[in-house]
Each structure stands twice: as C-alpha cells, then as structure tokens.
Amino acid sequence: MVATGGSGRESRRWLATYRSVLAIRDVRLLFTGLAVSATGSWAYNAALLALVYTRTHSLAWVGAAGLVRFLPSLLLSPYSGVVVERSDRFRLLLFTNSLSFVWQGLLAVVVLAHGPILLVLALAALTSSTGTFTMPAVGATVPSMVPESELVAANALQSTIDNLVVIIGPALGALLLAFSSAAVVFFVNAATFAVAALLVTRISFRGTKVDVTEGGTAGVLAQMLVGVRAILGARSARALVAMCALVSFIYGTDTVLFIGVSAHKLGTGADGFGYLLAGLGVGGVLMASTVNRLAARASLAWVIFAGVAGYTLPTALMVVIHSPALAFAVEVVRGGSTLVVDVIAITALQRAVPRDQLGRVMGSFWAFIIAAIGLGTVITPAITTSFGLDAGLWTMALAPSLVALAALPAMRRVDRDTAAASALLAPKVALLEQLGIFAAASRTLLERLAADAAERSFEAGAPIINQGEHADYLYVLMEGSVEVSLNGEAGAPAKPVGRCRRPTTSVRSASSGTSLAPPTWLPARAVAVL
C-alpha cells in the first residue's frame, strides 16, 4: 500500500508539473506543432525505409537511406545554431516547415510516378537539411519560455511527446502502408508540416537576437566553433554529450538492425520495423514520470551508466527472440533507459551555458548526435553483411556497454567536480535563500546566480548606490550595515531615512529615489548578482 501511494503521489506531482508547463500558451503551440510534424516524420521514416527495402531488398540501401537523412543534418548543424541566434526563431521555423511541406509533396509525386530511388533519396536529403534548424531553435528557446524550476519538466515533456510520436508515427505509417502506399504517407507528412507552420504563426514570444559576429570580428568559422568549444571546454559537458552520443549511435544501428530483425526473426516483414520503434516510444513515456527525480540526484554517474546499459544490453535478446510481443517488451525497456540519458544531457547543457551562446551550443550538440547516428547507420550494414545479423546484434549489445563502463570513472569525476562546485557556492546560496524575492527559486537557479555573483567590499562611508543612477546589479548585503538616504529638492542635502542590516537587497535604479552607503563608522561587504 505504501509503495502504491508513493507512486501515485509521484505521478500526480509529475502531471501537475506538466500542466504548469502546458499552461504557458506559447509552449502549448510550440509543442503541439512539434508533435504534429514529428508524428508525420516518424510515419515518413518508417515508410521511407520500408520503401527502400521493398525496392532493393538490400540492408546496404537501407543504410544509405539512413545516411542521406543524417549526413546533411550533420554538415549543417554547427551553422544552424548560428542561424538560430541571428534570426527570429519562429519565423525561421515557419520557413523551414513550409519548405519541408514542399519537399514531401514532391517526394510523394516521385513515388507515385515510380521515379528512381536516387531521386527519392535526394528529396529525403533535402527534407533532412531543412529540418536541421528545428531542434537547435527549440532547445535554445525553451529555457527562456519556462521558469528555471520547470526546465527539467519541460524537457521531459518534450521527450514524452517525442516518445508518443514514436509510438503513433510508425504505427500510422504501418497502417497507411497496409491500406494504401508510401506516397500517401509522404502526402500526410507534408500536411503535418503545413499544420506546424500554421501553429508557429500564432506564437507571440520572441527571443533576443544575438550579434554572433562579436562586433564584426568573428567570421563564420569562429561563430560556428563557439558551441563546439563550449562543449569540449567543460568536462561535465564533454562527458554528458559523449554518453548521449553513445546512445544515439545505438539508435543509428537500430534503424538498420530492426529491419533485419523484423524481416528475418519476427516474421513481420520490413513493415514491422515501425512496431519495434513504437516499443521504444512506450518505454520513454513510462519513464517520463521518473526522470525529473533522477535528474535532481546529486550523483548522476551511475544513473547515466544504468541508462546506457539498459538501452544496449537488451539488444542481445533479439538473437533468440522470435515473438513480436516479446521483442516489443524488450524495446519498452530500452526506450525507458535512453530517455534518462537524453533528458539529463540536454537539461545540463541548457543550464550550463550562457543564453547568448545556447543556440550555437545546441547546434553543435545536435551535430555530435547526428554524427553518432550516421556512424551507426554506416557501419552496421558492413557488420551484418560480413558476419551476419546475429553478430551485429551481439556487437551492438556489448561494445557500447563496455565503452560506458570505461567512461564511468570520468563520469564519477564529473560528479565530484559538481559536488565541489556546489559546496563552494553553498555560502552564497544560503544567503540568497534568505531573501523573499528568491523564495520560489529552485536550488539550480540559486546556484547559477551564486556562480555569476561577484563579491565586493566597500569602505566606511563609500557610496554603494547613488540615487538617479542607471540600474545595473542586484546587491545582497553579506556583512555590515548600510544607511539609506534620500536627496532633498533643489540641491538640499541628503536626509537619512533608514538603516539596513544583512541580509538585504537593493537594485541600483534611477527610479528608486534612494541612495545606499555604509555608515561612516563601519565598512560593508556585498554580493553583486549579475
């Protein structure tokens, strides 16, 4: 009874947090558009791979279809972050959704006309290139659209939507393929892009554009490398992105192996590929209620390792499983495991980097992820062709798990670094916690503020804030006391109106009508929160 009650309370808390995120109108519109277009895209993915396999009966061609979808995104992702930061992100999404509508409509026409497979792959590459800008735009914008305390929930909600469409999209694709043709699936996908474009036009939120040229001193390459340097320059970011790239690599192998498993082991034909993907989606949805709690743990090394192992090791079971139901159950376990790694990695990046670099960082992040997926689609056909399907399944079950095990000491060092940094910030965080204006702030937000804060000391009688000056910092008094004075009219001397002792705050502001300074007999020390 206790376990059930606890689980029920956790589920209610999870649903309440989701409702809070979805109460924001612009977030609802953004996520709805993503859900609609992603559903069509997953149906399209399943139909595209099934079409290629049906026409060629070759896993190598299936790998090529996966490659043309990922390679353009890989090449464009680093620069996509630059475009995101220098553009109106929602106008950019309107343009890319509209262009994807055109590509998918042309693809449907080509398939109806029994056009060459190379032309099919070319249009698939154009669709992929156009969609490259979507995830960096969303990843850079969501942190500004939701409160800091709800960022994990927002990312988990987005991942839940992603996993729901993994269930619905391939199933829709398989259903349409069963009663119509691949061309119909491509027409449906085109329509979903049109709906997403319409929803984007109703979003009122506008992000701030960034001067990515740094005053004209940074060229295109320098602009692109900002995100790469931000990831590679921080040990925690490197480790988290590496683990996320590892599970993405396995996803790339899945896109090839699932076709072989479905056709040769489960007896469901190439179209059964979509049902295995749906199993991954179900697992992600079931795990969504837990990931928020896992992401809040002080130590993440073992959580991430368990996520990687839970995604990779069950692949070995596909060697002996011939039941579609059992195969589906295995994919449920794998889908829940990979969600943990993805949400933790993306949330950590969004919190760790400056907002004016977030678009470029997310562009570089997706470049790493797409490179990993593309690598998986390239090497898997070579393994299965040379050594067989079972060898491919064993390899992709064991090798990535060993890589994650080898990386565990590095992940534990990241945990120690994080704990040390948190301990160093603890006094400033404790000070901020005493202030009423931060009563609802999360621990993560307070640590970010404390990390950005600069400590300043003032001599006795020295002014801290002068009446009429422009606003710059939020001052939090750490030691000592200050006198508050108000300037009189027509040059009359300042009149003391009060005294403040710690902890207290003040914002330098032209409209505050007051000045602060330590009394002439006592120095003071304050933190200026940037």
Any overview of this molecule?
- It contains 16 helices and seven strands.
- The N terminus is likely disordered.
- The two termini are 49 Å apart.
Q: How would the blueprint of this fold be written?
A:
Layout: H1 2-22, H2 25-56, H3 59-86, H4 89-112, H5 117-131, H6 134-145, H7 151-179, H8 182-200, H9 220-232, H10 235-264, H11 273-295, H12 301-312, H13 324-352, H14 358-387, H15 389-433, H16 443-452, E1 454-458, E2 474-479, E3 481-486, E4 495-501, E5 505-507, E6 515-517, E7 524-529
Antiparallel strand pairs: 1-7, 2-5, 2-7, 3-4, 3-6
Alpha carbon gyration radius: 27 Å
**Structural class of the secondary structure composition?**
alpha+beta
Any low-confidence stretches, pLDDT <50, length ≥5?
1-6, 506-516, 518-524
Q: Describe the global form.
A: globular
In the sheet with the most strands, the strands line up as 1-7-2-5
What is the number of helical segments per DSSP (H or I, 4+ residues)?
Answer: 16
Number of strands: 7
The helix/strand series, from N terminus to C terminus, equals: HHHHHHHHHHHHHHHHEEEEEEE
Main beta sheet: strand number and arrangement?
4 strands, antiparallel
The averaged pLDDT comes out at 77
Report strand %: 5-15%
Helix proportion range? over 70%
Distance between the termini: 49 Å
